[in-house]
Design a protein that fits this description.
CATH class: Mainly Beta
Shape: globular
Organism: Lottia gigantea
Distance between the termini: 26 Å
Number of strands: 16
Subcellular location: Nucleus
Protein name: T-box domain-containing protein
GO molecular function, one term: RNA polymerase II cis-regulatory region sequence-specific DNA binding
Keywords: DNA-binding, Nucleus, Transcription, Transcription regulation
Order of helices and strands: EEHEEEEEEEEHEEEEEEHH
Number of domains: 1
CATH topology: Immunoglobulin-like
Strand content: 25-35%
CATH architecture: Sandwich
Number of helices: 4
């Protein structure tokens, strides 16, 4: 399904930046690990207090104008209008989606930043958390359990958050980062992958982890 960009695309000239030359590109830093999860069917646990994304969402940015300032954002949108269930070892459609949770755009805390600074090293969204708490006040992404989602990165050339809606932007979507939100892991293969690759899964290893109520 299409993932429409919320702002004006790059290539639409602004009167105040005729000399800016950029052709933004973003690569997923840990692409191989994401693809390993994606082949099985990535799951992300959501909690009332918020849980961080794993694999970590890191991006390598290139093609920016070194001196111009950019704002980096991430949002998480539904992939479809379905609710899912895990049955006989696989995910399947279980019905129509629940009413959509409030939309939120996560602004990377380093924004706005110069193109030179953004391109120096991979950019991490490790502070973003996922929750099912509709009253969340921490800025976490609010999601429905047993629904499939797609993270999107938006890069906006702007030096001020108030100018974002009027500034050139580009949206990047990596399909391998799609996931189903759950309150407890459903697929034991995903549980094992998380344990094998996540250095913070020590408590999960010790306490054991398995399927629970959705």
């Amino acid at each position: 399904m299409p993932y429409p960009a919320p702002f004006r695309p790059f290539g639409v000239p602004e009167t105040n930046d005729p000399d800016v030359q950029d052709d933004p590109k973003i690569e997923l830093e840990n692409d191989d690990l994401w693809k390993t999860f994606h082949k099985i069917g990535t799951e992300m646990v959501i909690t009332k207090t918020g849980r961080r994304i794993f694999p970590a969402y890191k991006a390598k940015i290139s093609g920016l104008d070194k001196k111009s300032k950019y704002i980096l954002l991430l949002d998480i949108v539904p992939c479809d209008d379905c609710r899912y269930k895990f049955h006989n070892g696989k995910w399947m459609v279980a019905g129509k989606a629940d009413p959509e949770m409030p939309k939120r755009m996560y602004i990377h805390p380093d924004s706005p930043c110069t193109g030179e600074q953004w391109m120096q090293k991979p950019v991490s969204f490790h502070k973003l958390k996922l929750t099912n708490n509709i009253s969340d006040k921490s800025g976490a992404a609010i999601l429905n359990s047993m629904h499939k989602y797609q993270p999107r990165i938006h890069l906006v050339r702007a030096s001020d958050l108030l100018r974002m809606a009027y500034s050139p932007n580009k949206t990047f979507v990596f399909e391998e980062t799609q996931f189903i939100a759950v309150t407890a892991y459903q697929n034991e293969k995903i549980t094992q992958l998380k344990i094998d690759h996540n250095p913070f899964a020590k408590g999960f290893r010790e306490n054991g982890g398995g399927r629970g109520k959705k």
